[in-house]
């Protein structure tokens, strides 16, 4: 049985524990958007720009670990991202020793550390970020797509040659092994990406932007083993203007949703969330002409000052996750807070404008 701390701030776990003794087991979810999460050992969690995946009643939370990386501030744009101009592998967020951290849970609240799922000594030297992992039921493999910058003079010089490394493992804990370093996407110079699996067909799709197209979002279908894109054959066409990234792609009932924001390198003000809808990931897509993470007037800051990571579903609810960059109280990027909030939909299935919440309870 797990131990729970009891406080006026967090009484739900205690109530569930009491009910489980007197009546029957119950589950809940509590996530604070005011402080960095702790694992079951009491350690601050180092978990960023990744995704959550549920398989067999276990939740797996994959994310980049920035370890002892200190927050940095530059004098030229992007101000919160000076590491792109520095010697390759030295800037915060652009080091070659960052980890693919994995935590596991059965209740989305109590997280067990499961180590580095993509060990440094088993992967090519380079800079890694924004990992996404899905499970392929046909092959029984866990498949990782992760952004990769090969060595160059600076990260900025490496970006035109950026790609995704595709790796797989028999278990979520890994170690993931690279099986494809040329995934065959239509556009080169890989930008941010997300993966989504069709609940009905098992087909997988990638939504991504690229340096070669000025950071414009499009969607492509993956091959049945999820290890490669089908490329131009199934490209949706551009779904954003230039200078957009961090796409979210998910399925709700018979509708697909694509959301994205403006380019935002570790930005403290967050980025918006434009919304598109379709009956298929390849379209045709409808622009809902709505930014559901709006700017606060005059400040430049968004209501939720986060950059989007992923949307996961639990008990029919859709949870938005994002990084509150530069929020770490101790000045370590590894301890920047993860924001979780429930997406709301009206009767027509349209995503409602989001509001900041101090905590998420389900």
From TrEMBL:
<dbReference type="Pfam" id="PF04616">
    <property type="entry name" value="Glyco_hydro_43"/>
</dbReference>
<protein>
    <submittedName>
        <fullName>Uncharacterized protein</fullName>
    </submittedName>
</protein>
<feature type="signal peptide">
    <location>
        <begin position="1"/>
        <end position="28"/>
    </location>
</feature>
<dbReference type="InterPro" id="IPR006710">
    <property type="entry name" value="Glyco_hydro_43"/>
</dbReference>
<keyword id="KW-0732">Signal</keyword>
<dbReference type="GO" id="GO:0005975">
    <property type="term" value="P:carbohydrate metabolic process"/>
</dbReference>
<keyword id="KW-0378">Hydrolase</keyword>
<dbReference type="GO" id="GO:0004553">
    <property type="term" value="F:hydrolase activity, hydrolyzing O-glycosyl compounds"/>
</dbReference>
<dbReference type="InterPro" id="IPR023296">
    <property type="entry name" value="Glyco_hydro_beta-prop_sf"/>
</dbReference>
<keyword id="KW-0326">Glycosidase</keyword>
<comment type="similarity">
    <text>Belongs to the glycosyl hydrolase 43 family.</text>
</comment>
């Amino acid at each position: 049985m797990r131990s729970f701390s009891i406080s006026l701030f967090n009484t739900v776990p205690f109530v569930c524990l009491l009910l489980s003794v007197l009546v029957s087991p119950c589950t809940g979810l509590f996530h604070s958007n005011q402080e960095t999460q702790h694992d079951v050992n009491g350690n601050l969690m180092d978990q960023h720009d990744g995704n959550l995946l549920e398989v067999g009643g276990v939740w797996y939370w994959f994310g980049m670990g920035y370890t002892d990386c200190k927050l940095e501030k530059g004098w030229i744009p992007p101000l919160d991202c000076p590491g792109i101009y520095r010697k390759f592998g030295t800037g915060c967020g652009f080091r070659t020793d960052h980890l693919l951290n994995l935590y596991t849970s059965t209740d989305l609240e109590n997280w067990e550390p499961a180590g580095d799922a993509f060990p440094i000594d088993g992967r090519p030297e380079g800079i890694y970020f924004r990992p996404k992992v899905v499970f392929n039921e046909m092959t029984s493999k866990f498949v990782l797509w992760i952004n990769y910058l090969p060595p160059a003079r600076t990260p900025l010089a490496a970006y035109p040659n950026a790609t995704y490394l595709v790796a797989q493992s028999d278990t979520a804990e890994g170690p993931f092994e690279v099986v494809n370093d040329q995934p065959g996407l239509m556009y080169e110079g890989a930008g941010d990406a997300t993966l989504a699996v069709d609940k009905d067909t098992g087909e997988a799709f990638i939504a991504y932007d690229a340096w070669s197209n000025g950071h414009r979002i499009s969607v492509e279908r993956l091959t049945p083993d999820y290890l490669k894109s089908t490329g131009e054959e199934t490209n949706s066409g551009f779904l954003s203007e230039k200078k957009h990234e961090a796409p979210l792609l998910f399925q709700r009932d018979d509708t697909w949703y694509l959301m994205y924001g403006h380019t935002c390198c570790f930005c403290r003000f967050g980025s918006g969330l434009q919304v598109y809808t379709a009956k298929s990931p390849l379209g045709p897509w409808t622009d809902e002409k709505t930014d559901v993470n709006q700017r606060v007037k005059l400040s430049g800051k968004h209501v939720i000052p986060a950059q989007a990571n992923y949307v996961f579903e639990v008990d029919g609810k859709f949870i938005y996750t994002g990084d509150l960059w530069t929020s770490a109280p101790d000045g370590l990027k590894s301890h920047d807070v993860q924001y979780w909030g429930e997406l709301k939909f009206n009767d027509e299935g349209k995503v409602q404008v989001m509001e900041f919440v101090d905590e998420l309870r389900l």
